Structure to design on (408 residues):
């Protein structure tokens, strides 16, 4: 596979698929530019080499087509709003094509000069984008000489601009951007070359969202820590009393079978022995600490308790590889954030002692940021859904489209 670092973009027009799906306020100003920042190294590499950058992205979920934005109806989904900020970040005026599939876009892309940047209108104004339409993808491909995919957050979707478009480029003319490359190599490291002991920490609200990742982790981890609301389904399945804690009644059998599979494979499953329970889903609720399998009626577990924190910490501190997806409790409320905060600190501490830690999934990333530990872990994944699917063991179409025919 061609590597972006060794490719010289001089006199090439690079068609770069990024994920600039950033939040805007009511004045159409960007409120968090993390995703834009994440792809700057890729864009700057093309420009520094003496190439031109033609950038395409999806932006929100428009319901209708391009005509509606021209009428103002879906104005908020126009990538036009990104131009001023992107121009500032790149230190040059970014050109804008108000359609990614028009003759005008083709002309602008054709006449672009070295060092120039062209941002295309939202690819999702074409329904062909999400359908993975081949003709639309071939049309997009005419806009550049080489294709770079730097949109890890969209890699699990077989959309025209992330997947089918790559088929129009020969294997020496398509590659991952730096962000995508880092995501893939760090995920691969955890999945296939992890130093042992490998501990996976899985939390969050629902077992149903995490079944596939749990099943796959049983094949690679030595220890699996289960926290958050999903833990109570496991306690109930084993005959515990869980009061009014979160439970998925239809997943009780599955919880038992996951525990059995873990035993069979010699994987240690760690459930929180105690919990901080509350009489209400509120930061002002009455709280106390109880065994997680003896929660009284009228009470619900909203965080892991002190004994669980201690036990989980021991496991984390002896780990050499750590994967963390999902919080240990309702960390958004201060009274139930201690479990997640302490686990985050222990992951950082283990990293400081040489462990490799990868944090992924929206809420664990939010937690790491909230506790200001983002520079004390090895890698924070930017792709929520994509990261989850990767660790479920699935092949992501956006990645395969570049790897497949080029990698022997
Ligand atoms: P997920 O998106 O599945 O990772 O879930 C994250 C959400 O789970 C966060 O908003 C947490 O507040 C919530 N959560 C974590 N623990 C619990 C719990 N014990 N009871 C209810 N919600 C929880």
């Amino acid at each position: 596979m061609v590597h972006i670092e060794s490719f010289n973009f001089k006199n090439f027009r690079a068609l770069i698929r990024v994920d600039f799906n950033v939040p805007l306020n009511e004045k159409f100003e960007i409120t968090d530019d993390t995703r834009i920042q994440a792809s700057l190294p890729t864009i700057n590499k093309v420009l520094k080499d003496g190439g031109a950058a033609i950038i395409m992205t999806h932006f929100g979920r428009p319901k209708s087509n391009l005509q509606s934005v021209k009428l103002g109806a879906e104005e908020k989904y126009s990538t036009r709003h990104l131009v001023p900020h992107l121009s500032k970040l790149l230190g040059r005026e970014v050109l804008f094509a108000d359609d990614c599939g028009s003759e005008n876009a083709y002309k602008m892309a054709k006449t672009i000069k070295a060092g120039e940047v062209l941002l295309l209108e939202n690819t999702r104004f074409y329904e062909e984008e999400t359908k993975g339409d081949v003709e639309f993808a071939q049309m997009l491909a005419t806009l550049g000489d080489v294709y770079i995919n730097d949109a890890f957050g969209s890699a699990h979707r077989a959309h025209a601009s992330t997947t089918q478009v790559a088929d129009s480029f020969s294997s020496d003319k398509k590659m991952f951007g730096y962000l995508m490359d880092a995501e893939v190599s760090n995920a691969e490291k955890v999945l296939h070359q992890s130093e042992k002991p490998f501990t996976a920490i899985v939390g969050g609200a629902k077992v149903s969202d995490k079944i596939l990742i749990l099943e796959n982790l049983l094949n690679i981890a030595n220890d699996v820590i289960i926290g958050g609301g999903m833990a109570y389904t496991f306690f109930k399945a084993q005959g515990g009393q869980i009061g009014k804690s979160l439970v998925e009644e239809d997943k009780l059998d599955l919880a038992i079978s996951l525990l059995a599979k873990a035993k069979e494979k010699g994987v240690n499953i760690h459930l929180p022995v105690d919990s901080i329970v509350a009489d209400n889903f509120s930061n002002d609720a009455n709280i106390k600490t109880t065994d997680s399998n003896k929660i009284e009626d009228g009470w619900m577990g909203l965080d892991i308790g002190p004994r669980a924190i201690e036990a989980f910490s021991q496991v984390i501190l002896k780990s050499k590889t750590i994967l963390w997806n999902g919080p240990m409790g309702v960390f958004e409320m201060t009274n139930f954030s201690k479990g997640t905060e302490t686990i985050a600190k222990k992951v950082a501490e283990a990293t400081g002692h040489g462990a490799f830690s990868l944090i992924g999934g929206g809420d664990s990333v939010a937690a790491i940021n909230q506790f200001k530990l983002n520079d004390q872990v090895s890698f924070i994944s930017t792709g929520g859904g994509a990261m989850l699917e990767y660790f479920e063991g699935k092949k992501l179409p956006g990645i395969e489209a570049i790897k497949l025919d080029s990698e022997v």
